## 1
Amino acid sequence: MKQTIFLWIGILFFCELVRAEDSSRLWLRYDTGADARIVCEQSSPILDIAVSELKNAWQGGGQVTLQIRPASPWDELGEEGYTLRSSGQNREVTITSAGEKGLLYGAYHLLRLQESGADLYADQEFTEKPAYNLRILNHWDNLDGTIERGYAGHSLWQWDELPGTLSPRYRQYARANASVGINATVLNNVNANPRILSTDYLRKVQALAAVFRPYGIQVFLSINFSTPSELGGLATSDPLDPAVCRWWETKVKEIYDLIPDFGGFLVKANSEGLPGPHDFGRTHVDGANMLAAALKPYNGIVMWRAFVYEPGDDDRAKQAYQEFMPFDGQFRDNVIIQVKNGPVDFQPREPFSPLFGAMQQTPVMPELQITQEYTGFSNHLCFLAPMWKEVLESDTWQQGEGSTVARVTDGSVYPQSLTAIAGVANTGDDVNWCGHPFAQANWYAFGRLAWDHTLTSQQIADEWLAQTFSLYKAGETETDNSRAVLLHAQLTRMMLDSHEAVVDYMMPLGLHHLFAFGHHYGPEPWCDLPGARPDWLPRYYHRADREGLGFDRSATGSNAVAQYHAPLNALYGNMDSCPDELILWFHHMPWDYVLGTGRTLWDELCYWYNRGVEEVRGFQKVWDQAERYVDDKRFRQVQHRLKIQARDAVWWRDACLLYFRTFSRLPIPYELERPVHELKDMMEYRIDITNFECPPYGFTK
Ligand code: BDP
């Protein structure tokens, strides 16, 4: 009997060890069983989680007290903010908040400090409160279990099993989000299936909402604008038709009867073939306000996307601004306009969307893409915090210097009660959630920046690395541990440089949308599909010809620069002052134009592409040193993907340079590495996207 028990303990221990490093624990790899002294006088589902997390994992020795303090109108920290005090002498920590969620976030923050090696017992007191009210993930998950632009398996939501069976991953998902302050989720694709609002599906959504609630996570749904006719059997979905309004009111009541804290709707309308108010001769205001009226009695909101563009003569980059600016001030107060970070579409680099700061009487929320649709899927290591910081810190100048994208959306510049930021999720049912072990850092970074956009990318990378990999090991020699310190610094650097490297080998100098048609993985700057929308083809964007390269958006071209506030319109509008990083976004530049570096545009292009390749090779060198410090499985996963990335970088460089060379007719500078592919071959490659498992080299000719 005793032996069997020991055997079982052994097996469990072994399983735990194996499970321990499959990446499924994300950044939450606490050692459990600490049985710490945690005091909290109240109890509730949220507080009980805060207490049990600390009880299991807090290793500080002293006592942690969680206290709800009476809410007061002067309390600027709100229900989600908190104060954390620690006293070195008594080894005590006290976290206070006006709300339960504040205590949950405080508890996770304390554990984050512990896991990232902070000095826990310095006498200190600090406060934290979130920058945005709503910090929300957008899942592009379809009801059939597939994920649009998902690279980590199938959807987490097991629609067929819900509501009866609840996967343990729902709770783990909620916990991971709460640990970084994410407080809301849109469960389904913006390209929404009307069936999501059927009673059957709403019951499934209700079950998910119940799992997420104790972690402070509110549920939202994407809706299809034609649901009244498609699902409800009405003759129309015209937003001004009284029967349509009644249909939505009844549906919204049904939702709130099931999910009293339901958040509201996300809407993609009249975009990329989806229905919307234009189909009935109505406007975006008519559509959004009708839904907002139905949601208002329950405090629900509408997140209406500005990602709209029609094939036509005018520059796609200008269209969202043209469509929405005339409506500023006309939306109901529970509507917020969701704007992608750039004016086109989540490209590796774009200038910020000119709608930020320009819409002054309507709340606007940034939409970022966590899933790496345009940055190498889950094969390429690309830490996105630097890119998001670049957007959030861009100065719109709309209210003078310092009106950054972050400040015009978080309520600092414009008095708005509704503030939000969305990230298109990169999660799936893969064991490690995100496909690439380092892609987890992007989920993490989104949450951290949504909470506090003043954190630096370095702080976020540091924290994430420390929590995700245990580079320092007890019992190792001092030399080993000081090597680990050095390695940690090198890995942080690698993360910080990774986005720029991707831009360099894919689309440097402001180039954009050179992607292969449809799947957006590899390069296809030559792509020309008869009958395809011109604004879905790379040539529309790069405009390469015998004279030069790039899209003229200056006053002599599409004049998109005019949508930016002074002094940006002049800065971007002039070839000599436009930053090199964006020069081909705003200008069609002659091949022999001499840039600030003293090199011609053509030479510079070659240098930047080459630099991207070299940077990735550098990442391989850094990562290989991690072999001794990182568990085998994750080490190999990353190593394998870096090999793919290094090959892809060469593929991108060769494809783009050899193709553009057919226009420039100039040699690649002789000091640079020579291409290893033939243009003709690359133009025939087809990636088998239906079988897109890592490695992706399912090329067929
Ligand atoms: C594009 C994606 C497409 C999305 C669309 C959107 O390629 O799959 O549906 O954005 O955001 O980037 O609506």
## 2
Amino acid sequence: MSVLVYINNYGGKIQKNSFEALAYGKALADKLNTNVVAAMLGPAENPSELGAYGASEVFHNPSASFADHDPGAITKALSGMIEQSGAAVVIFSHDYTGKSIAPRVAARLKAGLVTGAIALPDTSGTFSVKKAVFSGKAFADIEILSDKKVISLLPNSFEYSKGEGSATVTPVNGEAEKSTLKVKEIKKESTKLSLTEAEIVVSAGRGLKGPENWGMIEELANDLGAATACSRPVADIGWRPHHEHVGQTGIAIRPNLYFAIGISGAIQHLAGVNGSKVIVVINTDPEAPFFKAADYGIIGDAFEVVPKLVTAAKALRA
Ligand code: FAD
């Protein structure tokens, strides 16, 4: 009857999203008076450390052959662990991996699925999970009626912290099934900080006039320890790489602080960033729609305002 959380293992490195999912799983397990187990695939130095984030037990299959991230193979391996643990609720992060595996696992378990949850389930009476719908314009509370339940948690929706403790590690043997995918090439993002993991994001749009003007955006991001992002047209014209494109058709992010510089604030852009905790908009046009979504707005020319922010950020750092 436990809660099982899938931990994404990128070559021995566990990302923030998985710790958030584990903290969410632990809080849910406490509500249900049960324990939380973690499931992890691939080599990892010390899986017992997941105990410091709430796991009481870790099912660990260190087989290296999961390295190609074939969702079908991972689903099969994970299903065995879910069965072994007797878990009634399975939690994923709603990241790329979770998006591809959670529905497959739900189909195998014949479980009800809610993707992109933003809060702990309401377990008083029924089991209902809140998520944002219509590009963040409304919320839906979805009841899961099946005995088994699968939830994927929207990144940056749940706080986690590292505590004490160490988890029991249960080794799981077995190679992954032969992959039906052939990985031809893996292109790693060149950015130092992953966009979905960043607490602060500095984003710019067509108001920047050309790719040669991104130096000040990168400098500001660097001084603030932030990731850089952009609007879709900027990526489409090739001013910035596509992995920086945020919005409805790009990446959805929820940082603590989002700078929108020279971006109009079209609904399709807002759909990917309106979950940010604080939004700062810099735009020459006082009528730009983004100001309606802003916590702080500066009506001004990015080429005057951003260098001043860079100076202020450097002073703050010093
Ligand atoms: P613009 O609309 O050209 O706005 C530029 C802004 O910069 C203006 O507000 C202007 O006042 C301001 N500006 C100009 N000069 C300066 C200056 N010197 N200093 C400060 N401000 C200045 N867009 C996305 O971003 N993400 C998506 O995922 C996405 N998906 C889409 C999906 C569909 C199906 C469709 C139809 C569109 C989608 N779009 C998406 C496009 C979206 O509708 C907008 O066209 C786009 O977001 C506009 O980008 P922008 O704000 O950079 O450019």
